[in-house]
Amino acid sequence: MVSTTSMVLIAGAAVVATAFLTTALLAMLGWRFLRTHMDAAGDQVAAKVQSAVTEAVDEALPRVREAVEGGVRDGANGSLPRIREQVKDGVSEAIASAVTGGALGKAGEELVRKGGGVLDALLGSRSSKE
Fold this sequence. Notes:
Layout: H1 4-100, H2 106-129
Helix pairs in contact: 1-2
């Protein structure tokens, strides 16, 4: 027969094993419960954050777009007259150097004068529209 000590050890081992299995099962169920609820809470928080960001972007985008457009417009309005003037001066200098250099004949000089007049009229009419 089995001695009393052996029976106590077997019973103690059974109690410890049962306690361990019960604790492990409860821990697994608890983690699953927490994960399910935490995932749901995380999804709610993510939806709220996404909604808030979308709302903030929708609210700020027109102001940002207006500010950028205004800055580009101001920069262009300030630069275009100077650029046109520089182009006009450069073309006039090129025409003058070609005429004084003797590179063009009488017909060429007439053509250059007419081309310069047309260019002056075009650039003058555009700069007067601003």
